[in-house]
């Protein structure tokens, strides 16, 4: 546990548990009102929320967003519970940054999840900035192979790195390097933010670099600036992390901004502050193919796979109910249908 990257993951979870205001409770989704259908003209029993993503069938469009992994009993426990639940409920799951396994071999075990999730849609994860710190296609392949992943998330986190006293802040020329990985890797590369959102110019540039999957990960939920503020303050006493705690683009705004890119073949994933099935439905209407949640799964994952399954099943029931009340039988009846907002 002496490895700083490894230790950081444990610290992040402790901070999330001790400071409830790391959850920003943005209200951007609440400003969108769904249009009730008193005459839905569909049988609730026939409503089908399933979707195919990267060739795998999901029971509904849910992604357990990237969180953790490392050489620590709690981190292994969280990932196994999430993976087992993803398998049992047929939803997608991303693991947290795998950078740690390149400095701390024991960490790899927390990313070998096929034993409990043989068929689930699983995503590997690395920080894109590591491509400016010596990582390249070999590390990306290793991260994918250890998980036997269906895709690789490369996360963009310039704000987090800027607040971290030990952050890697050279983001110069990253877009082109991400493009090279996307063209070389055997599985799709998905670029994500971690809670500040993707802007149209950034997304358009990534699209020009052949990145065809983007997770907007906007503001409204977990604030990494605020989390890092606590760690920063052990070394530097200032309020930089608090000043930027709500910095970024709210998730529904980012989705709307990026919608034109769908015509160029880009698949959008919505995440950041999605807290219930109605936020999920609104995201699908705004053009997302998949919707992700991270923080809401942390507590159940620390408990058991059953607790995660229960949470997912509640989400699925609510999601199906909302589809029924909007007169939607399949996801095609929701996708891009802004007329379903009042
Ligand atoms: C405990 C925790 C750890 C996270 N670690 C990572 C990570 O390693 N890599 C990454 O891409 N995102 C990471 N994230 C960010 C999430 O994937 C997500 O983009 C962000 O938290 C916004 O979603 P939320 O509001 O539902 O939490 C982490 C989130 C949490 C809560």
Fold topology:
Elements: H1 4-18, E1 51-53, E2 56-58, E3 62-64, H2 73-89, E4 92-94, E5 122-127, H3 137-147, E6 151-155, H4 158-163, H5 174-184, E7 189-192, H6 200-208, E8 213-215, H7 224-232, H8 240-243, H9 251-258, E9 267-271, H10 277-285, E10 288-293, H11 298-303, H12 305-325
Parallel strand pairs: 3-4, 3-10, 4-5, 5-6, 6-7, 7-8, 8-9, 9-10
Antiparallel strand pairs: 1-2
Helix pairs in contact: 1-7, 2-12, 10-12
The structure holds flavin mononucleotide (FMN).
Which features does this protein show?
single chain; 342 residues; TIM Barrel; 12 helices; 12% strand
Number of helices: 12
- What is the rounded Rg? 19 Å
The CATH superfamily title: Aldolase class I
Q: Beta-strand percentage?
A: 5-15%
Low-confidence stretches: none
Assign the structural class, choosing from mainly alpha, mainly beta, alpha/beta, alpha+beta, or little secondary structure. Answer: alpha/beta
Give the strand line-up of the largest sheet.
Answer: 3-4-5-6-7-8-9-10
Q: What name is given to the CATH topology?
A: TIM Barrel
Highest CATH level, the class: Alpha Beta
Oligomer kind: single chain
Distance between the termini: 52 Å
CATH architecture group name: Alpha-Beta Barrel
Mean pLDDT: 97
Strand segment count: 10
Q: What is the N-to-C succession of helices and strands?
A: HEEEHEEHEHHEHEHHHEHEHH
- When the domains are counted, the total is 1
> Which cofactor or ligand species appear?
flavin mononucleotide
């Amino acid at each position: 546990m002496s490895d700083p990257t490894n230790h950081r993951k444990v610290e992040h979870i402790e901070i999330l548990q001790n400071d409830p205001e790391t959850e920003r409770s943005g209200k951007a989704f609440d400003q969108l009102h769904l249009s009730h259908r008193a005459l839905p003209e569909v049988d609730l029993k026939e409503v089908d929320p399933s979707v195919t993503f990267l060739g795998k069938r999901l029971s509904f469009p849910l992604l357990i967003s990237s969180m953790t992994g490392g050489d620590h009993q709690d981190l292994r426990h969280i990932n196994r519970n999430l993976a087992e639940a993803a398998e049992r409920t047929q939803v997608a799951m991303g693991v947290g940054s795998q950078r740690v396994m390149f400095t701390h071999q024991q960490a790899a075990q927390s990313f070998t999840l096929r034993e409990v999730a043989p068929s689930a849609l699983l995503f590997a994860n690395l920080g894109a900035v590591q491509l400016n710190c010596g990582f390249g296609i070999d590390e990306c392949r290793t991260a994918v192979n250890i998980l036997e992943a269906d895709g690789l998330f490369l996360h963009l986190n310039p704000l987090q790195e800027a607040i971290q006293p030990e952050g890697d802040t050279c983001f110069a020329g990253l877009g082109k390097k991400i493009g090279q990985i996307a063209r070389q890797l055997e599985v799709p590369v998905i670029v994500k933010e971690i809670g500040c959102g993707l802007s149209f110019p950034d997304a358009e540039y990534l699209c020009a670099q052949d990145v065809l999957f983007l997770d907007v990960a906007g503001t409204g939920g977990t604030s990494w600036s605020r989390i890092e503020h606590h760690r920063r303050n052990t070394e530097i006493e200032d309020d930089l992390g608090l000043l930027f705690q709500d910095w970024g683009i709210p998730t529904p705004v980012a989705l709307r901004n990026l919608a034109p890119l769908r015509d160029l073949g880009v698949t959008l994933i919505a995440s950041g502050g999605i807290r219930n099935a109605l936020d999920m439905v609104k995201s699908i209407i705004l053009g997302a193919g998949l919707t992700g949640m991270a923080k809401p799964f942390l507590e159940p994952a620390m408990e058991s796979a059953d607790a995660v399954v229960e949470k997912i099943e509640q989400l699925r029931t609510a999601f199906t109910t909302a589809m029924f009340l909007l007169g939607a039988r399949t996801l095609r009846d929701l996708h891009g249908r802004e007329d379903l907002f009042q």
